[in-house]
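Lab notebook page, bench 4
Experiment: in silico fold of construct C2
Operator: M.H.
Input chain length: 495 residues
Purpose: comparison with the prior construct
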Amino acid sequence: DESFTYAPVASDVVPAGTTYSWDLPVNDNVEGQTGVQDATSISQTLINKSNVAQTVVYTVTPKSGDCIGADFKVTVTVNPQPVITVTPADDICNSSTVDLKTTFSSNVSGSTFTYYTDEACTNATTVTTAKWDAAASNQLLDQTVTLYAKATAKGCVSEKASSTVIIKHKPLAPQVEDINTCASVISDVRGWESLVKNYESGAELTWYDGSAVVTPADFDMSVAMNKAYSVSQTQNGCEGDKSTVRVHIRPLPEAPMVTNLVVCEGVGTKAWRDLVTSRVDNGIKVWFSDIDGTAQIAEPITISYANPGERTAYVAIEMDGCLSEVVEVSSSVHPTPSFAEVIDESDETTTLKVNGVAPFTYLLDKNIREEFDGEVNLGILSIGNHPLTVSDEIGCKNDTVLRIEPIPLVPDKFFTPNGDGVNDLWTIKGLERYPETKIFLHDRYGKELAEFKGKDFNGWDGRYNGQDMPSTDYWYIIELRETGKRMVGHFLLRR
């Protein structure tokens, strides 16, 4: 679209006053071409509308006065002005580059390009590749790079054009929270996304198990696990670095095995730790003041067998910083059974009372009796010594000898066997204490009428060989085997 002027030069021999007529056929690819009549020169701006060179051929007829000279032709070649087409570059991530010169094209074959860094096209450059500026003050803002260009073809220069690309920032690795804790007692399900604490709004999280993209399953804080994933965030198609998320839920150690101590009062000691066995290697015994484990304490003082009583301690196992369930362990030092002899004067039975930890059993005269809870009636004991052993249920025992002192025997002075229910039998009071004693009955003439053993004697009914004996005095001889003594006396049978 440049103009041209055509006129005779000074060296030409042209009659004064010569004019020219410019005639031409129209070229539809060229604008601005017109014929000119009777002019001394021609000046036109021609525009090539195509992308190849066009020619405009003028037929020039000179005229001087009434004289018309010979025609001649003037050919004007009109080169096309390049027009730049820009194919926009796709946005790229900060790890990529794009050569912006590839986005420029010209409609004129053979065009050459000059590139500029400024809109005024004063700073020419040969660097046309757009890449991330790592020196920018804010590395979390997208960057924009613009390259300007002009095309030149056969001396014709295009209008400037620009090509812009957005270089998207690379998101930071997400801020994550690792979990390194003991398993909870109750189920507490959590999702992996809860461990990502900070990432860009609108970003998409991508999880990896190794190099594989995965969707991690929720995890239960009450179930031991040791797993690591990595996670990245992607913003506008650009993925950032990965962060490693580790979940180490340490298993709770098993509760310890305990052996409750039950011993008899005596000599010796036992440390509480010796009553507890860890089910896991390297388990540490930890002591508490209660079953809820609210307050940790030092190991309780050593158990002394000399101090009867019940004691309780609470213990758990610690392993890798995790505590097992708190369990109870107890010690029971049974006191030596102690007892007292009580004689009931009304029926002369012996009642044994025992202090200690019931139930008890006793061994009297080498005969085992039934259990009792602290008091038992031993019945009527014979005169003399009775070895006695009292034991509780774990074998704590005490030995003694019950001494039953002799008591007087009191034979009846008379009896009246008439069937009225009163004094119908001749008896001996106190005989129960003398089971081995022998009793002999005689009439007044010395005839033996009956012989009895103390444990079998329930009284004489005044009969001999099935016949009632007459009213008179009768004699008795009592041989006390328990004491070695002998009693002789008489009594009256009265009908």
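Observations: DSSP finds no helices and 55 strands in the chain. The two ends are 179 Å apart (CA to CA).
Next step: discuss at group meeting.
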